[in-house]
Amino acid sequence: xxxxxxxxxxxxxxxxxxxxxxxxxxxxxxxxxxxxxxxxxxxxxxxxxxxxxxxxxxxxxxxxxxxxxxxxxxxxxxxxxxxxxxxxxxxxxxxxxxxxxxxxxxxxxxxxxxxxxxxxxxxxxxxxxxxxxxxxxxxxxxxxxxxxxxxxxxxxxxxxxxxxxxxxxxxxxxxxxxxxxxxxxxxxxxxxxxxxxxxxxxxxxxxxxxxxxxxxxxxxxxxxxxxxxxxxxxxxxxxxxxxxxxxxxxxxxxxxxxxxxxxxxxxxxxxxxxxxxxxxxxxxxxxxxxxxxxxxxxxxxxxxxxxxxxxxxxxxxxxxxxxxxxxxxxxxxxxxxxxxxxxxxxxxxxxxxxxxxxxxxxxxxxxxxxxxxxxxxxxxxxxxxxxxxxxxxxxxxxxxxxxxxxxxxxxxxxxxxxxxxxxxxxxxxxxxxxxxxxxxxxxxxxxxxxxxxxxxxxxxxxxxxxxxxxxxxxxxxxxxxxxxxxxxxxxxxxxxxxxxxxxxxxxxxxxxxxxxxxxxxxxxxxxxxxxxxxxxxxxxxxxxxxxxxxxxxxxxxxxxxxxxxxxxxxxxxxxxxxxxxxxxxxxxxxxxxxxxxxxxxxxxxxxxxxxxxxxxxxxxxxxxxxxxxxxxxxxxxxxxxxxxxxxxxxxxxxxxxxxxxxxxxxxxxxxxxxxxxxxxxxxxxxxxxxxxxxxxxxxxxxxxxxxxxxxxxxxxxxxxxxxxxxxxxxxxxxxxxxxxxxxxxxxxxxxxxxxxxxxxxxxxxxxxxxxxxxxxxxxxxxxxxxxxxxxxxxxxxxxxxxxxxxxxxxxxxxxxxxxxxxxxxxxxx
Amino acid sequence: xxxxxxxxxxxxxxxxxxxxxxxxxxxxxxxxxxxxxxxxxxxxxxxxxxxxxxxxxxxxxxxxxxxxxxxxxxxxxxxxxxxxxxxxxxxxxxxxxxxxxxxxxxxxxxxxxxxxxxxxxxxxxxxxxxx
Lengths: 829, 131
Known about the structure:
The complex is a heterodimer of chains A (829) and B (131).
Chain A: H1 8-78, H2 84-97, E1 101-108, E2 134-137, E3 144-147, H3 155-163, E4 167-168, E5 172-174, E6 177-188, E7 191-201, H4 203-210, E8 219-223, E9 229-231, H5 250-260, E10 265-270, E11 277-285, E12 290-297, H6 298-301, H7 303-353, H8 371-398, H9 412-443, H10 458-509, E13 513-519, E14 526-529, H11 540-544, H12 550-553, H13 556-566, E15 575-584, E16 590-601, E17 607-615, H14 617-656, H15 662-687, E18 693-695, H16 696-711, E19 717-724, E20 728-730, H17 731-752, E21 758-768, E22 771-778, H18 795-806, E23 810-814, E24 819-825
Parallel strand pairs in A: 19-21
Antiparallel strand pairs in A: 1-2, 1-7, 2-3, 4-6, 5-6, 6-7, 8-9, 8-12, 10-11, 11-12, 13-14, 13-17, 15-16, 16-17, 18-20, 21-22, 22-24, 23-24
Chain B: E1 5-9, H1 13-25, E2 29-34, H2 37-47, E3 51-55, H3 64-75, E4 79-83, H4 88-95, E5 102-104, H5 109-126
Parallel strand pairs in B: 1-2, 1-3, 3-4, 4-5
Helix pairs in contact in B: 2-3
């Protein structure tokens, strides 16, 4: 709630009540806090005091018992008779004199007492060592003696021996009795010779401590410095066996840690025995590091504090209620006269708003507020008279009596109101008269009579509207006349344009060119086609009804090619395209057509294909015939060349017949083979389908076969392995390459295998990246080392090197295993 | 048969000359050389050779296959075609005339001899009266 939405009365009550509440709450809280702290300190001090008292008492007991052990030790140091019987008597007497002791004993080092241990082995009250270790005790309820046990490992003997100090052992069970041992070392000539000790049963501690009470249900117990329970009123069975750590409570474990280092203190925890919230006080016992623990329930310790707090809260509530009532009464006495005036004012305001101007304020109010209603009545009187006068004039004007004017003498702003009314009546009169004049003129079709009197504000809308209407009518008449004139001239143009269109259509329909407009979609649906499509046997309707799409009449082998090209241009516009392809006429006849298409964006933003097709079947036939003729001519030329080369081959043979010198005959044969390798190229060319590329694999097979025959290698088994796959070469590359292979293979046949019967010649041609790689290899004896193939007398190798150069190739020789020439080259274009 | 007579039909006379020399070297008689189909037929009729070596491409309207067909029908003289590594169409046509063999150009003397001997033997066996 906002501050302004609240009444004065509510504010007064809330302010007073809240202040009282705050004061009381703070003072109560402070009091409770102080008392709690005091009470807690008091209880703590009491508890600690109690813990210390008992700790001191227990400490005193322990000191007294230790004194017995020490006295015995000093006595034994001064005792020189070394009589075991006599010492036993002393020990028995001590035990009888102090009924609080459970045992009294001495224990000597080997031969430490009389040097006669050998004589006492396994004797009465001795063990197998014969050491003097009598243990006088009342464990079985009567006095008896037996040898000490475990002296060689346990603390009661070993600690004094090692430290030369007194020791109080940890509590332990021996033959069902929970006890501690207090031992003092015996020295002779400053040398440790044994111990004297007493055992004290701890049952009495449990009896004493368990009966203790603190507040109503608080209790106390004792632990050893390891936290082992020495007494406990609730856990009798855990005494001597369990430690504080076994409660598994973090706070109790913290206390056990303190006890271990001999520290006092307190922790707050849940008592595992009662489940109540308790405070646990612990205090160390000086002798032997025992601790006295006091457990006090929290609620009992703070019972007084809780009581006090409850009373203070009741007092505070009563105070708040009382102060609330008082503040209500004060608020009421202040606000009731204000309410009265406010209500009266509300009634007057409502009356005036409802038009009841005769209403008056009540002046019978408290003296403090009297001027308010009197002033209000004066205001009412001053306003009512002018309002009534202007109302009269306004009513008359509304009734159309525009001559009416104000009569009352008015003052201030009321005078302005009266004058404005009079002025308004006058100007309204003028506007109506002028508008009437203009409208009458319009009725008589005279649109040139302007509005003379322009009103202000909304009247301006009226007079402006009349003027605008008159202007619009004037302009409309003018526009109508102009449109009529234009319409006549347009009709004339349209007629001319229609005549032109008909003429154009006539021209197209009488021409071989068919005009199409296709949609740029799959299968090219036709939007428009010229009438002369009948020359293909189709009607316009076949296409425009979409019964046939344009792609349906294109030859299936050509559709893909044209579509893949033209569809790349669909998104462009103003592109000119040109295709040649085959179509079917309606009767199924195949025709070649040339299409010229223009891709254009239409008004709807779609791309359409506009084009013409022209039957070019005749031209195509001529072209094909020409091509065929050209091919035949080329074949003929290659045939002639081949024949001529064959003639040269024969001429070389005939010439060689005249010689007997085998070297000369061989030279002729080599030349014949070179000529043949060229003749074979031409033979392959006129057999090839395109007359310009040679199937080089086929060529090489033939070449190798004829070389093998030519050299007539008798009694030799030379194998050719050629691996040339799908390599087609033109004549410019094939002729040099043929001669290169001819030379290299001839060399191998002639020289590589002089002794061998079995040989192999490999010819390999393959494409490696962009280049061709030719390998000619034999597994023969290899080139003589003195021969440099790049610089030799051999014509064959000279030809190879120069022809490799001619085809812009490179040549490498590898002689690791026979002879291998590798030639890398590009096809010459 | 001693020194069999052979008619060589080859329109390139230089090639024919080479062939003639080689045949002589191998011990055959070359009765004559013809360079057209018509000439081949008339010389075959005139000389009645034991064997005709016929180039397939010849001068004139008639090629070697046509000439061989006529000679086979009229005279029953065995014909060996002398041919380059020809196209399939030509070979197919040549086969229909049931030739006695082919000599592939370029030829070596061994090829020549083998083809001739086989053709003569084959022809002799076919026409032997004991058969």
